[in-house]
Amino acid sequence: MSERPPELSPQQLRSLLGTMYRIRAFEEKVDELFMRGEIHGTTHLSIGEEATPTGALMALQPDDYITSTHRGHGHCISKGADINLMMAELLGKETGYCRGRGGSMHIADVKAGNLGANGVVGGGIPIATGVGLSIQLQGNGRVCLCFFGDGASNEGTFHEAVNMAATWDLPVIFLCENNQYGMSMSTKRSMRNETIAQRATAYGIPGERVDGNDVFAVYEAVYKAAQRARAGQGPSLIEAYTYRYKGHSKSDQNRYRTRDEIREWQGRDPIKRLSEYLIAHNVMSQEEIKQEEAAAYQVIEDGYQFALSSPEPDPETLLEGVYA
Known about the structure:
The protein has one domain (10-309): 3-Layer(aba) Sandwich (Rossmann fold). The chain is 43% helix and 10% strand. The chain is built from 11 helices and 7 strands. Helix 8 links the parallel strand 6 and strand 7 (236-241). GO terms for molecular function: pyruvate dehydrogenase (acetyl-transferring) activity. This is Thiamine pyrophosphate-dependent dehydrogenase E1 component subunit alpha. Keywords: Oxidoreductase, Thiamine pyrophosphate.
């Protein structure tokens, strides 16, 4: 772990841990429900990546915007989403964020600044650039944080959108969650670059790779980029180098990587690292950390019970919100 940023209070440090535990608990519950057939379609879990969205969102203001991805549950939770509404959405209930119509890959909470997950790889990147232009024209001092994966960095939308944001000095932070595999394709085989952050040079903007399992490192990089964006100095590209313990999606048989590789990364677990830091620096005791963990899992269980008791959508309303 890097050293704690001095502006973070003990309460904020506890909040970081609580958020990471809620993400982990939510993802584990979703995994369980999918295996039991209670969630349909597919879902993409971010177990092992919790430090990146948690640190990034702590560095922003509540009224800043984000665009998300198909692996977006952690982004939602870090942005302050209501767990009840998230769980109801995944179970296809009327009380969900999108009235049960969006499911895992399309949760949005526009009022809270979460402009939505996106099932299209790289789909949120040009949206973020558009949001950045809107912010600039309004002069409201906000920023837009754009989450995307390593696979999306090879899409044309990435290059076009980053180039436009750089040319117009738009207040956008492009944050790549590099978990090293675009589906089953290793980044070592899909690009010649040593890092994705190096691509920032082509667009004349700052680029930085950080340890995506170190919540403080992510926080500091995003905080610095946000200050730069608010000062009218344009976008930044941050690469958070991290790892997902589970497969790409629930249909992934995970045959392209070894158990030893997964175990090695589990040894760098972001929650374990932050817990050990908080104990070593007398911010929380082992007992307090256990209580924080238990509270997170209880919140997720309460959300599941809320979803179970929620009504199914009325088939007569199926075409509401559909535009021709």
